Structures are given as structure tokens and as C-alpha cells.
Give the backbone structure.
Amino acid sequence: MKSLNLQSLSLIDYPAGRESVILRRLETLENLEVELNDFVAKGYRGTVFSGFIKPSDPFTIPVKVAIKFARSDAGKEQFLLKEARILEYLEAKSVAPVIYYYDEDMIIMEYVDGFPFSFERFFSKEKLVNVIREILEKCFILDRAGVSHSELKGEKHIILTDRGVRFIDFESARFTDSPRNLLQFLGFHIIRKPERLAFLGIDRNIIKKAIGLYKENPISGFKEILGLFHI
Ligand SMILES: Nc1ncnc2c1ncn2[C@@H]1O[C@H](COP(=O)(O)OP(=O)(O)O)[C@@H](O)[C@H]1O
Ligand SMILES: [Mg+2]
């Protein structure tokens, strides 16, 4: 293990910082041959570190992982297991981090390297439209899979990577018959912001109509929505 200072080590069991819990978690990582690297962020339910899966031979590039440790103040319910099962279910769909290991204490998943989606970041309309189209496609995949992420309102959970758009933090996600990922994304990031609609050259009433259709008939509605985002 890279030598982490005491303050970082205590974040393995935050906020309690119990030595026995920290040692147990480190032992699990050791057994899995996962090397802990740096502290990344404090989340609502967990603390996240970066790390590597040690390669079996010196010629393989180590896989970078994110390790989410359950926070000690996040309640008794086994929330990490819930999140892990959703990640596992979404595994093949390229919308969420690949999951490598989980238990009640931690999730070891693909490190999603990239930057959070932000409308203002794009100076080129063409690039922006392409990214929005991809986000819409990924939202549609989640909707069809029956998983509601429920926090796509904000920007920090939509990550643009070299390998495409990924959503992170499925801590509040749940299985449901009527997910609203696409509607949530469109509502918060596009429709509520008249200047964005104007920039994209999209009429508010027309997109609302397409959304109405999406609710009735997701496949045709989705085609119609996607058709509105062009250069
Ligand atoms: N798979 C991941 N890859 C890279 N960074 C991640 C990953 N998961 C979480 N993070 C980082 O850690 C932060 C907190 O994680 P999050 O999943 O929001 O935790 P919580 O479930 O406690 O809210 C995120 O905002 C992000 O910066
Ligand atoms: Mg979070």
C-alpha cells in the first residue's frame, strides 16, 4: 500500500475512524490485491478513494478503481449493497462504472475518469449537441432498464470520459416501472433554461409535445426528442 497519512487513513471509516474497522477494510483490499491510492471525495453516504488492481505480471497496466467505503453515520440499512446490485445489473450497458467487488463495507468499481457535464463548458455548439445527444441516449438506456438514478438534476453525476458518457453515484438509485431519467435531465438542464433552448434553437412547446409522446410511447417519443437536437 502507498503510505497514506493518518488523516487519510481515518477517512476509510468516516467519521468514526475506528481502528478495527479501518484494519478490516485494509485487509479486504489486501486480499483482493487492490492497492489504495489517494482520497478523492467525501460523499453523502461514503468516502471515495482511488486505487489500483495490482496486475498479475509487470507488463499489464494496472486497472484504476474507485473504492467507496460506507460512512459510519449513514444509517444501519445496507445501502452499499443496494447500490452495488444496481451497478451489477447495469454492468453490460456502458452507462455506469463497472463493478469489481462489493460487500457491506465497500464497493470497488471502475474509476470514471473525466469531467462533469456542464452546458457552459462548450464553446462549440456542434460538440455540445453531440454530448447532449449521448446523454439523452444513456438516459434512455437507464429508463428502458427500469432504473431511476434520481440525481441527474445536478451536473456532478454526469461524467464525460474518453469512452463516452457515464453516470456515477447510484446511491439514491432504485428499480422502478416508471423511471424519469430522460425527463429529469431535459427538465433541469434544458427546458427550465430559456437561454439554453434559444441557443439550441429548440421551441419550448415542441419539445414539451415530444415529451408528452415519450410518456405515451417511449420509442417514438425518444426519436422525436433526439431529432430536435441537431446542429
Ligand atoms: N466510480 C467513480 N469514479 C471516479 N470518481 C468517483 C466514482 N464514484 C464516486 N466518485 C467521486 O466521489 C464523489 C463522491 O461519490 P458519491 O458516489 O457521490 O458518494 P455518495 O454515495 O456518498 O454520495 C463523487 O462526486 C466523485 O467525485
Ligand atoms: Mg453522492
In short: The first strand starts at residue 34 and ends at 42. The chain has two domains: 6-110, 115-228. The two ends are 49 Å apart (CA to CA). The chain has eight helices and ten strands.
